[in-house]
Specification:
Layout lengths: L1 H5 L4 E6 L2 H7 L8 H14 L4 E6 L6 H12 L18
Parallel strand pairs: 1-2
């Protein structure tokens, strides 16, 4: 989400392979562990930066593309994320 925010996106459609995390972000399930609660609050703060945010559950086998973006975002320093290739897609990968 930080990566998407930094490139100036206003809308985000997120595909996630964890039903538990999806439910926690949607406030369907409680987040009880202190470490996970910190991530929950970070995620909710980032989500609030978007005009539109939707999260969809997908099977883990279908999420390899998201893993690549996650790796890219975690290895780049803030301010250096605008060099990625952007693609608009009408259909989920």
């Amino acid at each position: 989400m930080k990566l998407v925010k930094e490139v100036g996106a206003k809308k985000l459609r997120c595909y996630i392979d964890s039903q538990l995390v999806q439910g926690q972000v949607a406030n369907i399930y409680q987040t009880k562990e202190i470490v996970l609660l910190k991530y929950y609050h970070i995620a909710k703060t980032l989500i609030d930066n978007f005009e539109c945010f939707k999260m969809y559950y997908i099977l883990r086998e279908s999420n390899t593309r998201a893993d690549l973006f996650s790796e890219l975002a975690s290895t780049k320093k803030a301010g250096h994320l605008k060099t990625i290739i952007q693609e608009n897609s009408k259909h989920p990968p």
